[in-house]
Every structure is written in structure tokens, then in C-alpha cells.
From TrEMBL:
Organism: Streptomyces sp. NBC_00180
Name of the protein described by the UniProt record: Sodium:solute symporter
Leader peptide range in chain numbering: none
Record's bilayer topology term: Multi-pass membrane protein
Protein keywords: Membrane, Transmembrane, Transmembrane helix, Transport
Subcellular location: Membrane
Protein family (similarity comment): Belongs to the sodium:solute symporter (SSF) (TC 2.A.21) family.
């Protein structure tokens, strides 16, 4: 394992070095939080694919393939569909808004009264998303070093917190680009073909497994529908995803770069399912489907390759973890803390220090929460249920329906979020009903309250349209130098 250890250590050291480099570059709030809004197509596509394909998509995607066969691809597939929908239909408009958070978008659209409540919901989502990624370090470091769970979480989490705190979005962008390359080589180019060959090829896999393993809809229609509702719609509105859209150099970059990243996600989804199916042939009696990834890597890959593929798993976890962490800190500082204090710091350098401090604070909170929790799936389900149930309707309503009002948006956030929490307590965290009924109640309240209240002020809507068109006068002087 010495060679494998060396690969991992070099990889982790490289992540920290990029954090140091990013610190020297991030000298303003824009540079620190959204990489100066100047990523070109290559870096934008790679980093967007990196953040959406995390530990759940890699380790969890292979586990679903082990459990259900090719239809196990649906969870990651719906993530790709969501990213494609965001890129094609919304990302250009989002990029032109030149804001930092989803709540700032809601304030622009509804007249400045939706920020704190929506910020709290978004903060809870990004916190739980960061926690689930951090928990996944325990699985990977256990395979690598037979390490204690708590120590593994502290080690992996500390590295991510360190480079994220140092350089903000610039560090995260650079590390994500490396992580995208490592994932592509490790999972798609190495693990996928080796797993299929070790299982005897597709003909042997078909001979060894039940026919439902090769049914595209074998996982079940209701499960697929729930994945679409949670992950496809979740991709449209998450702060972690929007904050990457804000890094695009232009609306064209956001649209086409995101389309490339979404297409990559579809291929990654199928690869994970095939690897899991091959693992089922090789290890038919694993204790848990989520052990499939680690087992096939540990037992079937040659020295050196094994280290690279485990680095790919680390890359998947780190990219999602760092993206969720900076999103969580951005929301906590800009949407909650600044508003509760009643003022926003104006000095650019002070704002960098403030956001850096919040990343550190939120990072410690994430690591502590990850140590206390055990169930990744439950934590991720809570995160997406809150996001979709509470914020989907007011966000998409604001983008698509001009009659929506601030009162309708606030009511939708409150009712949808509370309904989801109450229904999770009643039906169970993993039940489908909370997100179904939470979303329906949010939609009903949004429409009803909006129609019963005074339309949004014409001046607010006019300013909103100017922002959407990229014509707001305060944006005219913002520099957008090229950066690939």
C-alpha cells in the first residue's frame, strides 16, 4: 500500500498548496466568494461537474448499482438532468443578476423582504450538505488507513476547511478542477473498464444476475419520480450551485459550460451503476451496498491505480464538501448575520476577512455535526426536503410569474418548510410524503397569498428586469477580464 499512500499524500498536499495560492489571489469580496466572476468555459464546466458529483454520487451511485443494477443510475442521472435544465433555461439570467446569494435574488425580485427567512432555510440545506460530504471521509480513510471514524472526519474536514478558508472560491475552483480530472481518470477511465473485465464482461454479468438488474426502470417509478422532485429541482435552486453560476465570465459561459457539465453527469451516472453491477457479480453478499465501491477498489485494482481511484473518491467528496461549505458560510454571513446586525460592512478587504472567518466557523460546526451523525442518507434527505419544500416555489415563481409577491414568497417558505419538518416527524425522514405535500402546500400558499395581496411595486419589477437583462447601471463598470 506504500505507493497508494504516496499518491494520496501528494494529492492532499496539493490541495493545501492550492489553498495557499488562492489566498494570494482573493483580495476582494468578489474574488473570494465568486472567483471575480471571470471563469471561462473550461474551468466553469470542470468545477461545476466537480461540485455536483460528490461522495453520494460516487460511493452512493456505485452502491445503488450494486443494489438495483443499471437503474441505480437514476439518482445521479436526475442530478445531471437538473444541471442541464438550470444551464439551458435559467443560468444566463442568474449570471446577469450579479448577486452573491439566492436570498439576494429574492430580495431583488420581491422588494427586500424575503432575505432572512429564506437565508435560514438555505443555510440549513448547505450545512447538512457539507455534513454529509464530511461524513464520507470516514469511509474512504477507513479503507486507506484503517482509521478511526472520528479521526478520519477531522482529518478530511480540516484539509477542506483549510484550503477553503485560505483562498475562498479561487482555492475551491483550482482544487475542483484537479478533482474533476482525478475523478475522470480514476472512475471513468480506470475503475469502470477494470470492474467490467474482472466481472467477466457484460455477457457474464447478464448470466450471473437477475434480469431486473438490466431493466432501466427496475428501481421503480415512484423512486425515480422522487429523485426528479428532490435532485432535479434541487439543482435549480441550491446556493452551492448558484454560487458556481455566479463565477461564470458571461451568461454564454454559464449556459454552455453548464450544459457540458450536465452531460458529463449523465455519463458518470451510468458508469457508477455499471461498476456497482460488476461488484454484485464479484461480491454477491456484501453487508451494505455502500461497501461496494471500497471493496472493489481494495480487492481488484493494482497498486498505484488503487491509490488514484481512492484519490478520485476523496476528490468527489472534497469538491462537494468545499462547495457546500463556502455556500453555507456565504449565506450565514451575508444573508443572516449582516441582516440581523442591521448593516453590511462596506470595506472590501474587511469583507474578505469576515467571509474567511465565517468559513472557519462553519467548518468547525460541520466537522462537529458530522462526528455526531451517522446516517448520510438521512442527513442528505433532510437537506433536500427543506430546500425543495421551502424554496423551490418562491424562487422559480419569482423567475417565471410576475404576479408573485413578497407576502406570497414568505408564506410559501414558511408553510412549505414547516410542512416538510412536520411530515418528516410523522412519516419518517426517508418517506416520500414530506417533499410531495410540502411542495404542494408551498405552491398553494404562494399562489393564494400572491393573488390576495397587492402586486409587487412597478419600480421593483422594473429594476428586476434591468438586472435580468444585465443592464443595471451599477454593473457597467465591473471588470470582466478573461480567465480560462
Amino acid at each position: 500500500m506504500a505507493v497508494d499512500y504516496a499518491v494520496i499524500v501528494v494529492y492532499l498536499a496539493g490541495m493545501l498548496a492550492m489553498g495557499w495560492w488562492g489566498m494570494r489571489r482573493a483580495k476582494s469580496k468578489s474574488e473570494f466568494l465568486v472567483a471575480g466572476r471571470r471563469l471561462g468555459p473550461t474551468m466553469y464546466s470542470g468545477t461545476m461537474a466537480a461540485i455536483v458529483l460528490g461522495g453520494a454520487s460516487t460511493i452512493g451511485g456505485v452502491g445503488l448499482g450494486y443494489q438495483y443494477g443499471l437503474s441505480g443510475a437514476w439518482m445521479v442521472f436526475t442530478i445531471g438532468l437538473g444541471l442541464l435544465a438550470l444551464s439551458v433555461f435559467f443560468s444566463a439570467r442568474i449570471a446577469r443578476l450579479k448577486v452573491y446569494t439566492v436570498s439576494e435574488m429574492l430580495d431583488l425580485r420581491y422588494g427586500g423582504r424575503a432575505g432572512v427567512i429564506s437565508g435560514v432555510v438555505m443555510w440549513a440545506y448547505t450545512l447538512m450538505l457539507a455534513v454529509t460530504s464530511t461524513i464520507a471521509y470516514a469511509t474512504i480513510f477507513d479503507v486507506l488507513f484503517d482509521m478511526n471514524r472520528t479521526v478520519a472526519i477531522i482529518l478530511g474536514g480540516s484539509i477542506v476547511v483549510a484550503y477553503s478558508t485560505l483562498g475562498g472560491m479561487w482555492s475551491i475552483t483550482l482544487t475542483d478542477m484537479v478533482q474533476f480530472v482525478v475523478k475522470t481518470v480514476g472512475v471513468l477511465l480506470l475503475l469502470l473498464p477494470i470492474a467490467v473485465v474482472k466481472a467477466g464482461g457484460f455477457s457474464e454479468m447478464k448470466a450471473q444476475l437477475p434480469t431486473e438488474y438490466f431493466d432501466p426502470l427496475g428501481i421503480g417509478g415512484e423512486t425515480i419520480f422522487t429523485y426528479v422532485l428532490i435532485y432535479t429541482f434541487g439543482m435549480l435552486i441550491g446556493q452551492d450551485i448558484w454560487q458556481r453560476v455566479f463565477t461564470a465570465r458571461s451568461d454564454t459561459t454559464a449556459k454552455w459550460g453548464g450544459t457540458v457539465a450536465g452531460t458529463y453527469c449523465l455519463a458518470y451516472a451510468l458508469a457508477g451503476a455499471v461498476i456497482g453491477t460488476a461488484a454484485k457479480v464479484l461480491y454477491p453478499k456484501l453487508g451494505s451496498p455502500d461497501d461496494a465501491f471500497a471493496t472493489i477498489v481494495k480487492d481488484e485494482l493494482p497498486v498505484g491505480v488503487r491509490g488514484l481511484v481512492l484519490a478520485a473518491a476523496l476528490a468527489a467528496v472534497m469538491s462537494t464538501s468545499s462547495g457546500a461549505l463556502i455556500a453555507c458560510a456565504t449565506v450565514a454571513n451575508n444573508d443572516i448575520w449582516s441582516r440581523l446586525r442591521g448593516r453590511i460592512t462596506t470595506g472590501e478587504r474587511d469583507e474578505v476577512q469576515g467571509n474567511r472567518a465565517f468559513i472557519l466557523i462553519m467548518g468547525v460546526a460541520v466537522i462537529g455535526t458530522a462526528i455526531a451523525l451517522n446516517n448520510v442518507v438521512e442527513a442528505l434527505t433532510v437537506a433536500y426536503n427543506l430546500l425543495v419544500g421551502g424554496l423551490l416555489v418562491p424562487i422559480l415563481g419569482g423567475l417565471l410569474w410576475k404576479r408573485g409577491t413578497a407576502q406570497g414568497a414568505l408564506a410559501a417558505v414558511a408553510v412549505g418548510g414547516l410542512a416538510v419538518i412536520a411530515l418528516m416527524a410523522t412519516y419518517g425522514i426517508l418517506a416520500n410524503e414530506p417533499v410531495y405535500y410540502g411542495l404542494l402546500s408551498s405552491l398553494a400558499v404562494y399562489i393564494a397569498v400572491s393573488l390576495m395581496t397587492k402586486p409587487t411595486d412597478a419600480a421593483v419589477l422594473a429594476a428586476w428586469r434591468e438586472r435580468l437583462a444585465g443592464r443595471a447601471p451599477e454593473l457597467a463598470s465591473e471588470p470582466v477580464p478573461a480567465h480560462q
